[in-house]
Design goal:
Layout: H1 3-18, H2 24-42, H3 46-52, H4 59-71, H5 74-101, H6 109-112, H7 119-136, H8 143-151, H9 155-165, H10 170-197, H11 211-216, H12 218-255, E1 263-272, E2 275-283, H13 290-301
Antiparallel strand pairs: 1-2
Helix pairs in contact: 2-3, 2-5, 2-9, 4-5, 4-10, 5-9, 7-8, 7-10, 9-10, 10-12, 12-13
Length: 305
Amino acid sequence: MSSESIDCRLSVYQSIEDNSSLTIPYLVMNTLATIVACYGLIADSTAVVIGAMIVAMLLGPIVGVVMGLVEGNNQLLYKAILAEVAGVATVLLVAAIIGKIHQDVPLGNEIFSRTTPNILDLAIALAGGAAGAYATISPKLSVGLVGVAISTALVPPLSTCSILLVRGETKLATGAFLLFFANLVAIQVASSVVLWLHGYHKITNSDRGLKPLLLRNTVSFGLLISLVGLLGLNFQTSLAKQHFEQNVRKEITKSIIGFPVTFVTDVRFTKDDRKNLITAVLTTPIIITPQSVATLEAKLSKLTD
């Protein structure tokens, strides 16, 4: 390895260590990011939620954890974990305060979309983590921009979790936190692999094998495998639900073909005592007989989710 390559890696290592520290600017920036993200979530504005991440700084300590695990530096590992925990706690606290202030505002799609994570979210986080790590060790790339993209997978789910908790929506809040946790684990594992492949496991020691990486990341890999199973199951459940609702809408549309100037305005799905309740709202100038309704109900009862 050339001296230039060694100097470059030492420079990257020092930068990662500096960005893993728990500092006042780090807490202030995460506080501001959370404020903007919360109002974007409450206002149901995708643009505001994404824009909020320009000032988020949760990625730095995650890369510090990765470097600590890959390189075997426990001091860096513990320092980065402390910073990440403090950052997460800051986001949760600030989001809880804002959520309490605006708890009467109706929840929108930006919040609900972060309460049912699935395997696709995990795949996105793995790619994002790899991109973040590669940008960190590549001087020609902007790690800031990649950090922004990755932070969108961290701060909004955490903010969503707190907003839902103060409203008593524990189940939905758990889903939002699961999304954050899945993203965190995926980013860490993908980053560990990228840094190891680029030789950052031998900066200050002569460790060149794959076994130490696996041993230091045993918990992470175990969590990732568990999340693959859990989120894969969530994906299958979500897919089955979508197919069910699609089939219901098709059946309703077919059933009104014979009625003149009749349209399906809305179809709502709810569950009551483990049974699917379907409410169809139609716009029609004619009277639909109870017999027609009973025929449609019989067809829909044969569909299962």
